[in-house]
Every structure is written in C-alpha cells, then in structure tokens.
Design goal:
With 188 residues, the chain is an alpha+beta fold. Helix content is 32%, strand content 31%.
Length: 188
C-alpha cells in the first residue's frame, strides 16, 4: 500500500492547473458584455438629450454682472426637472458633473464649470433655493446639497451644488430666497 502511494507521488506528470483557453474565453466574453452595457448606457444618454432638445440654449453671463455678493467653490452635481429629483436633464451639458465656481450678483448666479459648459441664471429666473439631500445620482446627508430652482424657457429646473465648505449653504439659501422675494415683489 505504501509503495503505491510512493509511486503515485513520484510520478513525473502533475495534474493540469489551468485551462487557459477556457479562461481567456470567459475574460473576452466578460469584456464584450461590459462594452455592450456601456454602449447601451451611452445610447440612453444620447436619447435623453434628444428628448430634451426643445430646451433653449443656456444664457451666458452679462459683460458687467455687477459686484459679487457671494462666492462658492465646490461641485456641480447636475440638474433635474423641478420637483423630480431623478429626472436628470442632460441637454446643453447640464447633466455633466464638474467642479464649479458660483458667483452671486444682482444680475443673477454665474455658474463657471471648468471642463463643462458655463451658464448663467438670471435673477428674474430664480424661483427658490433650499437645502436637500439628493439629486439624480447623488445622495448626501440631510441638508448637504444646495438646490437652486430656476426657470428656463417654460420649464422649471433644479440645479444641485455642494460647496467645499458646507456651512456656506445656509447663507446662499437665505440670500437667494430674499432675492426671489424681491424680484416677485417688483414684478407685481
């Protein structure tokens, strides 16, 4: 009995460890599947953009917007249809997340995004500002997101921003809401 074990252990050929052809086939198949899913997501993004093509061009900042009342440095997390926090707007680059520099003047809010389209929210278009916890694809702690509601064409839009210093959010909400109350009072 022990001699059989010794003979089996002394055998020169060991068992095959890996089936390389099968493993390569699985890796290639998985890579093709991931590429296909990515392509489908890209097509969905383009389709959403074509559905939102009726959205007018974004306004650009005036040459002389006035003196800065508030400034904020942080992240732009996207825009959605007002009240529909999962209905992302992708037309005109509004769906692209990026760093952001916000500047509030009497003329409105200038949104400067390196690597993405800048835009301007005129003071007359501002509707409200609030602290929220989420916007399409981004959920934070309660009150961790500054959401500005504004009118563009015939649509109300919520745009989500997160400051590098979250304590600034409250000041922005109070100031923007006082501006909307002032512009509503003058419009009457």
């Amino acid at each position: 009995m022990t001699s059989l074990i010794i003979l089996a252990a002394a055998e020169e050929k060991s068992a095959e460890v890996t089936n390389w052809a099968g493993r390569i086939g699985w890796v290639v198949g998985l890579a093709l599947f991931v590429a296909f899913v990515y392509w489908l997501m890209r097509q969905g993004w383009k389709w959403r953009g074509s559905l939102q093509s009726a959205l007018p061009e974004l306004p650009s900042a005036p040459e002389r917007p006035g003196e800065a009342r508030l400034e904020l440095s942080g992240r732009y997390h996207g825009s959605t249809t007002a009240g529909q926090w999962l209905d992302r707007i992708v037309a005109h680059g509004l769906g692209t997340r990026s760093r952001v520099e916000l500047t509030l003047t009497e003329a409105g809010v200038e949104v400067v995004r390196p690597g993405a389209n800048d835009f301007f929210i005129p003071a007359a278009a501002l509707r409200e500002a609030r602290l929220d916890k989420g916007i399409a694809g981004k959920v934070l702690a309660e009150g961790g997101l500054l959401v500005v509601t504004w009118a563009h064409g015939d649509q109300l839009i919520d745009s989500g921003f997160r400051s590098d210093r979250a304590a600034e959010h409250t000041t922005w909400v109070e100031t923007l809401n006082s501006m909307t109350n002032t512009t509503e009072g003058t419009a009457r």
